[in-house]
Automatic annotation (TrEMBL):
InterPro entries (UniProt xref): GH, GH39_cat, Glyco_hydro_39, Glycosyl_Hydrolase_39
Family indicated by similarity: Belongs to the glycosyl hydrolase 39 family.
EC number from the UniProt entry: 3.2.1.37
Signal peptide per UniProt: 1-19
Sample GO molecular function, one term: xylan 1,4-beta-xylosidase activity
Annotated Glycosyl hydrolases family 39 N-terminal catalytic domain residues: 28-525
UniProt source species: Emticicia aquatica
Protein name (record): Beta-xylosidase
Protein keywords: Glycosidase, Hydrolase, Signal
Length: 562
């Protein structure tokens, strides 16, 4: 038998080790809790919907309560159609309050019953309004007919743009409506409460939601802001809620509006400028079907945010104002289900949750880069009452069953204090994702970390724009700066087996009318769950090393308490 030298054995072991590393590539992520890179401000605690009347429906009330319970700060809710005529009709992309009508002589008649019902529901659950002056009441519209639309998924989107999109036939009557609504709100809810809300004018006035010109919008803003400030001088008033600034026409509209607020003659007062307390615009991604699977485009959404921050911070007198990204989503139509729009098939499963984790982390980075005052990023996702289970709407819950994406926000709710420095050998920088999205063979395997007085948290994601199967990511996590000798580790997970009611529903056979017993199982499966039981771990000189296996499109939250 031939003898093998020691050096040959060492070489053989080395080759085997090298081959194993090529088979299972390890991602290294270092977190240094001694390095504070900014506040862990919960700008994610903003949500919204086209349909305001869902708020006081059975599942709407349940979801509002859940949103409030998971957030360390008050959740804000933005809704359209708060001034639209009609009696709380429940069509998709529609809603109504019938606040304003006129008598036979053309005198205003105000009825706050339904809008109060909406706001009462918010406040009873610890949610605050991001109140929207929209849309035009039928009696005030310069072209009222046709008024109410009856849009359904699969129909052309422009079918929603009817008589409610037009400027008022009488700007003074519009201003009186604004004044009376704010005064009524102060009387009903108290000055201090209403001062804590944000109020805005309209939605996406640079496209079909507004059938006037940019100057007519500026005129309407002047009348609206003046009336609101007369009713409550300390009210927080903003706009213009334009579409994504990376689109040239949207960028132009935003710039014209901001210039008007700074340097143009006010249509009401005749003075220079108009009051502006916060600035808002939208940011959307653009998924499509490629080779039979969904391919996301996070870069499109981040370019909207980047360009919006760039525009706002270019105005010296406005650059420190709060910014609310009034809709910040993977694409643009919440009510377009995956059956009519197959590119939206990402919405029920874990792709939506991993996209949310990865994209919100980059919003922090973009705000840091531009030194922008990011107050909120509204997820235009709520729920659709009495619709089929898991129809593929962009929502947080379906018939009272929470989707995986809602559990990402529950994870965010467990992060507090300051953000800590994260470095890795396979992470994408915010500029890489913004400019090129997440394509090619390398996934986005990265983390967002926070540290508070008695706890720390690390959110990990394994994201790729292409919704295709891949091997688990093996992550070597090195934590530094932990101020305790022993920590209690809680490992929360969102993947196909955890915190995922959709996969459980499919295993049930995708029942269209689940039994009460099945609903109870689904409700439990929709909650954020631990991957393993909590465990106490000892640190070494403030350091802790962990090894994590994370599936593609999975999200983990490691919560450390001491």
């Amino acid at each position: 038998m031939k003898k093998i030298s020691i050096s040959a054995i060492i070489l053989l072991v080395s080759l085997l080790s090298s081959a194993q590393k090529q088979t299972i590539e390890t991602t290294k992520i270092d977190v240094d809790f001694n390095k504070n890179i900014g506040k862990m401000y919960p700008f994610w605690a903003f949500f919204g919907a086209d349909e305001p009347n869902y708020a006081y429906m059975k599942d709407g009330k349940k979801l509002l309560s859940e949103l409030s319970a998971m957030s360390p700060v008050p959740v804000y809710f933005r809704a359209h159609n708060l001034l639209t005529s009609g009696h709380d009709t429940l069509n998709l992309k529609w809603g109504s309050t019938n606040v304003y009508t006129e008598d036979a002589k053309g005198n205003p008649v105000y009825d706050w019953t339904i809008v109060d019902k909406i706001f009462d529901t918010y406040l009873q659950r610890g949610v605050k309004p991001l109140a929207q002056f929209s849309f035009m009441p039928e009696a005030l519209s310069t072209k009222p007919q046709p008024y109410e639309h009856h849009w359904q998924p699969g129909m052309p989107y422009d079918k929603v743009y009817t008589g409610w999109t037009y400027p008022p036939k009488d700007y003074k009557k519009w201003a009186d409506l604004v004044y009376e609504w704010v005064k009524h709100s102060v009387t009903r809810y108290g000055k201090t409460e209403v001062e804590s809300w944000y109020w805005e004018l309209w939605n996406e006035p640079n496209i079909g939601y507004w059938s006037g010109t940019v100057q007519e919008y500026c005129k309407l803003y002047d009348y609206t802001a003046d009336a609101a400030k007369r009713a409550l001088p300390t009210i927080k008033m903003g706009g213009p809620e334009t579409t994504g600034p990376s689109w040239s026409k949207a960028s132009e509209f935003l710039k014209i509006f901001l210039k008007h607020c700074v340097a143009d003659t006010n249509y009401v007062t005749g003075k220079i400028g108009s009051p502006l307390d916060f600035i808002s615009f939208h940011a959307k991604g653009s998924p499509k079907i490629v080779d039979g699977h969904v391919q996301m485009n996070m870069g499109t959404q981040l370019r909207d945010i980047s360009e919006g921050f760039k525009i706002v911070t270019s105005f010296p007198t406005l650059k420190k104002l709060p910014i609310i990204i009034g809709e910040s989503d993977p694409e643009g139509c919440a009510a377009c289900g995956m059956k009519t729009n197959p590119q939206n098939a990402y919405r029920n499963g874990t792709m939506y949750s991993s996209y949310t984790a990865a994209s919100f982390a980059r919003k922090y980075a973009l705000a840091d880069y531009f030194n922008a005052n990011l107050l909120g990023a509204v997820s235009w996702s709520f729920e659709f009452e009495n619709q089929p289970y898991f129809y593929g709407f962009r929502d947080l819950a379906t018939n009272g069953i929470d989707k995986p994406v809602l559990n990402v926000f529950r994870m965010f709710g467990l992060m507090s204090g300051s953000r800590a420095e994260v470095k890795g050998n396979q992470n994408y920088t915010f500029s890489m994702v913004r400019d090129s999205s997440v394509r090619g063979k390398n996934a986005d395997i990265d983390a967002l970390a926070s540290k508070d007085n008695r706890s720390a948290a690390i959110m990990l994601w394994h994201y790729h724009d292409d919704d295709v199967q891949a091997k688990n990511a093996i992550i070597d996590l090195n934590l530094k700066g932990l101020p305790a000798k022993t920590v209690n580790l809680f490992h929360y997970r969102i993947d196909n087996e955890n915190s995922n009611a959709y996969e459980v529903w499919k295993k049930m056979g995708s029942p269209e009318n689940p039994t009460n017993e099945q609903i109870a199982v689904l409700e439990k499966a929709g909650q954020l769950t631990l991957l393993t039981s909590p465990i106490y771990l000892k640190t070494t000189n403030g350091e802790l090393k962990l090894n994590i296996s994370l599936p593609r499109q999975g999200v983990s939250l490691l919560k450390l308490d001491w």
